[in-house]
Structure formats: C-alpha cells, structure tokens
Amino acid sequence: MVDEKDTVLKNSDDKVTDELNYENNLDKAIADDSDRALIKRILELLEDAKAEEIVLIDAQHRSSLADYLLICEGRSQLHCRGIAENVENNLKREGEASLGIEGEREGNWVLLDYGNIIL
Predict the structure, then answer these.
(1) Which residues of the chain register pLDDT less than 50?
(2) CATH code for the domain of 20
(3) pLDDT at 2
(4) Cα separations (Å) of 24 from 19, 21, 28, 66, 76?
(5) SS3 at position 35
(6) Does residue 60 lie within any of the structural domains?
(7) What is the pLDDT of residue 73?
(8) Helices marked H in 1-119 — which ranges?
(9) Domain for residue 108, yes or no?
(10) How many domains does the chain have?
C-alpha cells in the first residue's frame, strides 16, 4: 500500500488535489484501466525500493510526451539506480517492457519510458 502522506497526486495545473486519500484519487483521476493498473504497480515497486518524495503529475493536457509523470527521489546514486532496476526488472518479468531508459549508468537521474507513463 502506498503511504498516503508521502505520495502526492497533482493535476495538470500542478496543484495538489488530495494528499490524504491518494488511492481514491488515483481511481478517479485515471480513466484508462491499463494506465491506472500500471501506475499502481509502479507505485508498489517504488515503495518496495524505498523511493522517497513520490509525485504523480497528470500531464494529459500539458504535454504530448506522456499523460502521466511519476517523479521520485533516491538517497544516493546507487539508490536511484536500484529504484530504476527494481521497476524495470519487475515490469519486464510481468510483460511490460520499457520503451526507453536514460541516465541509468550515472544514477544522478534515471528516466523510464512506458509510453503514456514516464518515471
């Protein structure tokens, strides 16, 4: 279960919509079932890897790159790489391969592209 205090759902105007009831917000905010399921799974994997400051941004009306941006922090370069590897490896085993990965070698930042969802 995602820690409701640590995860924030933001709308496309970058305003917090409801920090206290994240799971209900996610169900209401994301109409597409496959996007919602993938986001929930990524959030579980981020929590497993002890990612910090997790933020989900609804970018549907502001970006043509992706509908949703998931942003999180790691405590170190090694931790950032570990977070990315945890998400990538688990989703790949579950049949959800990323379209691209950037920055993984350095670990200062890592981008995982899952089409409508960018982490």
Answers:
(1) 1-7, 11-22
(2) 3.30.460.10
(3) 47
(4) 10, 6, 6, 22, 31
(5) helix
(6) yes
(7) 94
(8) 22-29, 33-48, 77-93
(9) yes
(10) 1
Q: pLDDT tens digits, residue range 22-45? A: 455 666 666 667 888 999 999 999
Q: How many residues does the chain have?
A: 119
Q: Using CA atoms, how far apart are residues 80 and 51, in angstroms rounded to an integer? A: 8
Domain of 81, in residue numbers: 7-118
* Distant-in-sequence, close-in-space partners of 93: CB < 8 Å, separation ≥ 6: none
Asked if residue 71 is part of any domain, the answer here is yes
Helix (H, G, I), strand (E, B) or coil at 72: strand
- What is each CA distance from 85 to 38, 77, 78, 80, in whole angstroms? 16, 12, 10, 9
Q: What is the pLDDT of residue 3?
A: 47
| 1 belongs to a structural domain | no
Q: Which of 18, 119, 73 is nearest to 4 (CA)?
A: 18
What distance in Å separates the CA atoms of residue 39 and residue 55, rounded to the nearest whole number? 11
> In the prediction, which pLDDT does 24 show?
53
Q: What is the pLDDT of residue 28?
A: 61
Q: Nearest-CA neighbor of 43 among 108, 25, 51, 82?
A: 51
